[in-house]
Design a protein that fits this description.
The protein is built from 8 helices and 17 strands. The protein is an alpha+beta fold. It is globular, with a radius of gyration of 18 Å. The termini are far apart.
Length: 329
């Protein structure tokens, strides 16, 4: 396979995980304090989480996320740009002409941006030229979470959300309380001082919730952290979470095509690949781990067709900022 084809395939999503020799995989153990059960997520670990979005105008998307949202550029490859949302949570913005997905495919995903400054974010977003899905925002006491939804320049849903002290969140809240908030670099965006995010949840939408839940728990080794009935939330990285949503009740309905890829940054990409490629419940897109100077990566499918990617980046100049962000305490 030529270098050009490999780059186009793997930067569909675009990879990532720290190759710094001083960093180690981060096992994602149950929040309850119980001993981590055996499983690939705990055995092979993750160092960060990432989601790929696909654009007609990637430069305009990057400008929006930097200036309006205050996100930092972690790596800039021209046709793809990785932005840091929370300490170990990233979004990769990809030019549709170079990625695995087209911007015309249904955007059957959403990303929740978790913050303790929800009211302040609402007030700020009203001052910006941002399309809103939520026309109003009201805090109602006793609810497990509050939030509102904005829309990015090409239609991806951005859910600003705060999880409250509630029995439904008893496993999640202690983790969030220990997760630092990432604030924009002063003077680099329109965002007022004191507004930031400490975690993300990537939402995917499914027809067969029970079947998909079994896949992620039994095959992927994810531990259920929050059960809202029609949604299930799992921790997939130090500040990254993943949510399964019943398409009959969520913001999106099921679609066969989906303009999104979820990726896991890990130091043990070989362990992940050996495990997944030998599991008859996993359909692989990649026939091997693809290797470039900048990274190593491979791709699989989940039971309803979402792309899942595992990545590790080399510690070379083009990846310097990204590697530093992943390795930071």
């Amino acid at each position: 396979m030529s270098r050009q084809i490999v780059v186009l395939i793997l930067l569909s999503g675009i990879l990532v995980a720290d190759c710094n020799q001083d960093s180690r995989p981060v096992p994602v153990a149950p929040a309850s304090g119980e001993a981590a059960r055996a499983g690939p997520l705990n055995e092979f670990g993750t160092t960060a989480s990432n989601v790929f979005f696909y654009y007609k105008d990637v430069e305009a998307a990057a400008d929006f996320y930097q200036k309006v949202m205050g996100f930092r550029i972690a790596a800039d490859y021209g046709f793809a740009k990785i932005v840091q949302v929370a300490p170990k949570s990233f979004i990769t913005l990809v030019d549709e002409t170079r990625g695995m997905h087209s911007s015309s495919e249904p955007k059957t995903t959403a990303i929740a941006l978790l913050t303790n400054e929800l009211e302040e974010w609402w007030d700020y977003i009203q001052t910006q030229d941002v399309e809103m899905r939520s026309m109003e925002f009201t805090v109602i006491e006793g609810r497990p979470h509050h939030g509102f939804v904005a829309i990015d320049p090409e239609g991806y849903l951005l859910e600003f959300e705060r999880f409250n002290d509630h029995e439904e969140n008893e496993k999640l809240i202690p983790i969030l309380q220990k997760t630092r908030t990432l604030y924009p670099v002063p003077g680099t965006s329109n965002v007022p001082p004191g507004l930031g995010f400490n975690a993300t949840i990537v939402w995917f939408y499914y027809k067969d919730m029970q079947g998909v839940q079994r896949f992620y728990e039994e095959v992927m080794g994810f531990d259920l952290l929050v059960d809202q009935g029609w949604t299930k939330i799992y921790r997939i990285g130090p500040s990254g979470y993943f949510g399964l949503v019943d398409e009959q009740r969520g913001m999106h309905s099921y679609t066969e095509e989906k303009a999104v890829t979820l990726s896991f940054f890990t130091d043990d990409i070989d362990g992940w690949y050996e495990y997944l490629s030998s599991n008859d419940r996993v359909e692989m897109r990649s026939k091997k781990i693809e290797v470039e100077d900048e990274y190593r990566a491979f791709i699989a499918y989940d039971p309803e067709g979402y792309y899942l990617e595992w990545d590790v980046f080399s510690d070379i100049p083009v990846n310097a900022a990204l590697v530093k962000m992943i390795a930071a305490p």
